[in-house]
Amino acid sequence: MNAPSMLKSAVLIAAALAGIGLTSGAHADAPSRLDRIRQTGTLSIGYPTSSLPFAYLDNAHQPVGYSVEICQRIADHLKKDLALPDLKIRYVPVTSATRLPLLQNGTIDLECGNTTNTVERHKLVSFSPTTFVTKVVLMARKDSDLDVNNPAAFAGKTVTSLAGGLDLQIIQQISNQQHLNISVLPVNDTAATFIAVKTGRAMAMSTDDGLAYALVATSGAPQDYVVGTKAMLLAPYGIVEPKDDPRFKQAVDDAVLDLMKTKQIYALYDKWFNSPVPPAGVNLKYPMSAELRHAIEHPSDSGDPSAYVVSQ
């Protein structure tokens, strides 16, 4: 299947991913997490521990990364908005399976990692304006001699992906549609998906290309792996917010929009994707895509993949 067909098929697969616009500031008098944050003086941020360069632990076991730093900038805005100069951040590690439940039950106020914005998830949570646009691709060992740009090459084989993630759903749905009989191995974190491929438990991983390039670059043997270039789906990321809290959403969205309007987000991107990053000082050399540039210039919290397609 060629790239346009794969992308079209994946968009059809994800038919539930219909677009929605930025939430208005209605119901300004309704109870909000802003009130609790003001009372406790604490903002609780959930983050994955191994999703370099979005959110992960450095050598000091402190959370760092592109999404983490965006959330730190959000905290700076909340300090001013709430007149809380001593606002504290409480970091809570999450997995793909726990991130949304912990946001829903109030354990965390924001999830700052690499969560894909979909309309299905909008039934449970909200999203900030899109902060990253990735391609869902396959990554494999080079010595497998399998075409990572063709899911059919993995018919009858095992492909790993994050449990509860969109990447897992996409490869399952393609397998079902094309009758490929792919066995999907779900795991709990990004590092585990790579280990599954490295050790041969899986022939490939279905993942976002930003994560794939980071895993390969920091593997110690990048020449041993190959990352697909043809998208099975475009996937927008956003900071995940609680649902039905327009006051909090407005405050968070305003902070993200400020990063975009002032162009500070470009500097953050270069820091984490085009410069040496901790802990090993590896430079991912991952230029900003046309899709992300368009999303920054035209902010949206849409979960529709087609909203991020840029005409060539």
Whole-number count of domains: 2
And the CATH topology of the largest domain? D-Maltodextrin-Binding Protein, domain 2
Number of helices: 11
Provide the succession of SSEs: HHEEEEHEHEHEEEHEHEHEEEHHEEH
Q: Based on the structure given, which CATH architecture of the largest domain is correct?
A: 3-Layer(aba) Sandwich
Q: Quick one: CATH superfamily of the largest domain?
A: Periplasmic binding protein-like II
Q: Main beta sheet: strand number and arrangement? A: 6 strands, mixed
Oligomeric status:
single chain
Radius of gyration: 19 Å
User: Quick one: CATH class of the largest domain?
Assistant: Alpha Beta
Number of strands: 16
- SS-based class: alpha/beta
User: Which regions contain 5 or more consecutive residues with pLDDT less than 50?
Assistant: 1-27
Question: What do the pLDDT scores average to?
Answer: 91
Estimated share of beta-strand residues: 15-25%
Rough outline: globular
Span between termini: 20 Å
